[in-house]
């Protein structure tokens, strides 16, 4: 396990650094080492659903193999997390900007530099690596830098901090959100001016928008008027504030808006002001404060549009449950609609809310049959349809709640969730919560669906026997074992599949050890991941994984394994058709487990993901969706296709490593017929992200279509030789790149053998085509001398690429002659002539082979005589 940790009393720099480190180490867990700073706590109370943070007490420190420290390196500042430092072989990575102290932890990797904020270091790395940063993330990172540099004013601030902020602004960081959560100390002059502005302030209500206007006059210039106005906004709880202050010989105007309905830059445009909708300022020389205020009031009345209210962003109609609805049924409704809570009604009156957490607790204690009225929260904060967005936001923060029902005359009209508020604040770039794509109503009722007959009909006898042995051992060991994934999919489709993946509810590695002993095989165990591989004598392999989660039957009880943990294991998979399981226990042997409607999707020929962020979490699933679609002649389901296109447009594929791209590309191009996948990838604009140099123009696609018959001819002509189809298709796609193998290797990290094969296809084959088309008359031996270095892939490549009939005829004629005119002698015959093995053996055999192709030799004796004369002619020495 990898964990990312910052210091106790985490501030925004610590929080932002953790979130940034998560982008560099996506498999690591975000862990709080202690308490949060007050403003960070307020921020997280609103954004808790966005980031998956865990508490230190919920982490098994013994499983931690890598500790990633950000914005700290002091052992006294990470609380109980320090225990992981005692783990054998623990790897510690440090990203910090604080000076060295005696309390410092020594890291195996350290990036400690003198900048204003630790977040700056991580933003620089993300920029260098080209990692995508969306506007919401940019805003969080900007919060970290601004707070630790006092908005770039501390003496510790460096140019690198400013450059990082500039980069984040380019990525869409929202300064109004930043300013909302940052506090700054005031100077004495600023405090005096603030007091004057508070006394002189007046409030107005225009179209439901609360507006504050204040003014003042002082002899000397005092900086930070924008900050003072921001403080007044906090104190006054208004939506818009404008300050008009005469300082020195000028009138300074500053506007701040927390309401999208009011664009303060438009209000101040008449004064040659600068800024944007939420923050603007202007300076007027020789202006009068009273006149300017009168003009601004007029402009506000003309430009203020009605405030965003609850009725503008609410969800309706609202799914509700009654007091007598059981916990089990309420849980199903939450799962079906993807909600985190449900209002409870008595008739038409709302009397409480039941949350997912309440339901999970009740179910874990075996109370799924009980009515929700015993577990619901009766103290519910409600709002009206006219409640404004800022008021909604404050209620959620103050009461730490995620949903607010909208009540009108005692009836529930709608509900506003935390997600609704965040989308209003951050727009379409806000990363929404997981949404299930599968429809629970589509999940088959497979309580009596058993695949025994299919297993008998579609599986070979050895596989059936092996599954029976696994079943016997599972019952003997007292654990639940399932065969899952592609094996189940292909079993239902009647397609042969020898990849057996087992999921064990219990101790997966322990079962794998027992299975290896039972089947007389050997085992490779990865205890840290709960996985193992059983390898039999014939090199047949069985993968074993643990599906395990813990729960408590009652307070202080020892943890038990949750029976439904298989569902959680299957939910992590890519598509519904790959998220099915077959029970192997003797009692229910062959029973299909299909939580997500995979069998129905198989029957309808649909590729469907399980949840909306599937392609964001693992972009390789985009390539797998195409592969399965084309392999089985299926269609990517409409909503899934929309998510595919959105992920491609969001450049998710660009985040993949060369190794992951290569492996997925190899799977696609090794399919029996990859042409459809290649075309589909063109249609979806995938190639620019995984292989930018690929030629997918019409001419190239026509050549690709000619490859299968070319391969088939070579296989037949050469005795069904095995051809590396993935390298062949790769060569066709990259044929315009020439011999730039190093560049190809940089993008795909191919093996030395694959590099050698590509050199043949991209460098040698074009030369062969030229030499075969250069002369009108060629003996078969001359053709042989030209194509002698070609492999089977090379012949197939030429037959696909060449449009010259003469070249193709000569290649086919040569392959046919070579097949029908095999040499009758070999190196042993040359040794019998009195020669020791040497390089000239090959020269002699090549020469007699060409002579045989031309019909100059026919019998074995003629071949031997030819070789003897050839060796004498080249001066080969016999042994004494």
Structure explained in plain terms:
This protein has 880 residues and is an alpha/beta fold. It folds into six domains: 179 residues, inorganic pyrophosphatase (n-terminal core) (Alpha-Beta Complex); 120 residues, Diaminopimelate Epimerase, Chain A, domain 1 (Roll); 123 residues, CBS-domain (Roll), CATH 3.10.580; 170 residues, Beta Polymerase, domain 2 (2-Layer Sandwich); 149 residues, cca-adding enzyme, domain 2, CATH 1.10.3090.10; 47 residues, no CATH class. Helices cover 45% and strands 15% of the residues. The chain contains 37 helices and 28 strands. The radius of gyration is 36 Å and the shape is globular. The chain starts with a strand and ends in a 7-residue tail after the last helix. About 3% of the residues have low confidence.
Say which CATH homologous superfamily of the largest domain is assigned.
inorganic pyrophosphatase (n-terminal core)
Percent helix range: 40-55%
What's the domain count?
6
β-strand number: 28
Determine the mean pLDDT. 85
Distance between the termini: 69 Å
- The helix count comes to 37
**Outline:** globular
Rg value: 36 Å
Q: What fold name stands as the CATH topology of the largest domain?
A: inorganic pyrophosphatase (n-terminal core)
What class would the helix/strand composition place it in?
Answer: alpha/beta
Largest sheet: 7 strands, mixed
The CATH architecture of the largest domain comes to Alpha-Beta Complex
CATH class of the largest domain: Alpha Beta
**Cross-sheet strand order for the largest sheet:** 20-21-22-19-18-25-26
Give the low-pLDDT segments: 428-434, 548-564
Q: Report the sheet-strand fraction.
A: 15-25%
């Amino acid at each position: 396990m990898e964990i990312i940790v910052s210091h106790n009393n985490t501030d925004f720099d610590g929080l932002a650094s953790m979130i940034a480190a998560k982008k560099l180490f996506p498999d690591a867990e975000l862990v709080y080492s202690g308490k949060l700073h007050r403003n960070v706590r307020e921020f997280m109370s609103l954004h808790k659903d966005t980031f998956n943070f865990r508490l230190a007490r919920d982490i098994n420190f013994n499983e931690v193999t890598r500790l990633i420290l950000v914005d700290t390196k002091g052992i006294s500042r990470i609380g109980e997390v320090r225990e992981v430092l005692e783990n054998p072989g623990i790897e510690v990575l440090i990203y910090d900007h604080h000076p060295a102290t005696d309390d410092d932890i020594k890291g195996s990797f350290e990036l400690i530099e003198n900048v204003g904020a630790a977040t700056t270091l991580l933003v620089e790395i993300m920029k260098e690596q080209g990692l995508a940063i969306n506007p919401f993330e940019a805003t969080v990172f900007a919060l970290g830098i601004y707070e630790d540099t006092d908005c770039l004013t501390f003496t510790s601030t460096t140019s690198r901090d400013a450059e990082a902020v500039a980069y984040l602004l380019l990525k869409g960081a929202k300064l109004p959100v930043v300013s909302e959560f940052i506090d700054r100390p005031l100077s004495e002059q600023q405090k005096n001016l603030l007091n004057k502005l508070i006394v002189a302030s007046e409030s107005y209500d225009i179209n439901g928008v609360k507006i504050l206007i204040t003014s003042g006059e002082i002899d000397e210039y005092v900086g930070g008027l924008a900050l003072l106005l921001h403080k007044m906004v906090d104190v006054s709880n208004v939506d818009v504030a404008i300050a008009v202050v005469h300082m020195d010989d000028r009138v300074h105007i500053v506007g701040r808006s927390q309401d999208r309905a009011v664009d303060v830059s438009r209000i101040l445009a008449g004064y040659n002001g600068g800024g944007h909708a939420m923050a603007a300022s202007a300076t007027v020389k020789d202006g009068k404060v009273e006149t300017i205020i009168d003009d601004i009031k007029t402009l506000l009345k003309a430009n203020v549009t009605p405030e965003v209210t609850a009725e503008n962003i609410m969800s309706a109609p609202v799914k509700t449950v009654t007091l007598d609805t059981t916990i089990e049924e309420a849980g199903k409704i939450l799962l079906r609609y993807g909600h985190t809570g449900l209002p409870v009604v008595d008739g038409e009156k709302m009397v409480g809310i039941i949350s997912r957490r309440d339901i999970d607790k009740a179910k874990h204690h075996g109370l799924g049959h009980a009515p929700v009225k015993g577990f619901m929260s009766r103290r519910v904060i409600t709002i009206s349809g006219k409640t404004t967005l800022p008021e909604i936001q404050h209620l959620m923060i103050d009461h730490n709640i995620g949903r607010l029902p909208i009540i009108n005359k005692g009836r529930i009209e709608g509900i506003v969730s935390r997600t609704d508020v965040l989308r209003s604040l951050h727009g379409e770039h806000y990363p929404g919560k997981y949404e299930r794509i599968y429809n629970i109503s589509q999940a088959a009722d497979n309580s009596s669906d058993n695949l025994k007959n299919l297993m008998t009909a579609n599986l070979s006898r050895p596989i059936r026997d092996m599954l029976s042995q696994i079943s016997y051992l599972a019952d003997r060991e007292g654990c639940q074992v399932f065969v899952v994934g592609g094996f189940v999919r292909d079993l239902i489709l009647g397609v042969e599949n020898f990849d057996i993946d087992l999921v064990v509810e219990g101790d997966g590695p322990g079962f794998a050890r027992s299975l290896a002993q039972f089947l007389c095989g050997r085992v490779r165990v990865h205890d840290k991941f709960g996985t193992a591989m059983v390898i039999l004598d014939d090199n047949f392999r069985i993968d074993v994984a643990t599906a395990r989660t813990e729960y408590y039957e009652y307070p202080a009880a020892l943890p038990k394994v949750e029976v439904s943990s298989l569902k959680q294991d299957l939910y992590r998979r890519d598509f519904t058709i790959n998220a099915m399981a077959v029970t192997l226990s003797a009692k229910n042997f062959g029973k299909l487990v299909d939580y997500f409607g995979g069998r129905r999707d198989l029957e309808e020929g649909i590729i469907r993901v399980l949840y909306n962020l599937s392609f964001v979490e693992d972009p390789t699933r985009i390539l797998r969706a195409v592969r399965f679609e084309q392999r089985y002649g299926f269609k990517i389901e409409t909503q899934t296709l929309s998510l595919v296109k959105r992920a491609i447009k969001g450049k998710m594929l660009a985040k993949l490593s060369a190794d992951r791209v290569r492996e997925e590309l190899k799977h696609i191009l090794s399919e029996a017929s990859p042409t459809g996948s290649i075309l589909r990838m063109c249609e979806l604009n995938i190639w620019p992200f995984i292989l930018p140099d690929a030629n997918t123009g019409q001419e190239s696609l026509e050549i690709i279509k000619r490859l299968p018959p070319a391969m088939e001819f070579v296989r037949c002509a050469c005795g069904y030789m095995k051809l590396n189809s993935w390298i062949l298709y790769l060569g066709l796609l990259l044929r315009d790149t020439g011999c730039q193998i190093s560049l190809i290797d940089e993008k795909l990290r191919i093996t030395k053998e694959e590099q050698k094969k590509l050199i043949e296809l991209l460098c040698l084959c074009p030369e062969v085509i030229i030499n075969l088309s250069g002369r009108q008359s060629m003996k078969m031996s001359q053709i042989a001398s030209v194509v002698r270095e070609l492999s089977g892939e090379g012949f197939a490549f030429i037959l696909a690429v060449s449009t010259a009939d003469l070249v193709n005829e000569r290649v086919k004629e040569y392959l046919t002659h070579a097949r029908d005119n095999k040499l009758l002698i070999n190196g042993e015959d040359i040794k019998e002539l009195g020669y020791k093995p040497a390089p000239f053996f090959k020269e002699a055999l090549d020469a007699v082979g060409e002579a045989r192709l031309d019909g100059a030799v026919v019998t074995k004796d003629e071949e031997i005589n030819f070789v003897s004369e050839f060796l004498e002619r080249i001066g080969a020495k016999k042994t004494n």
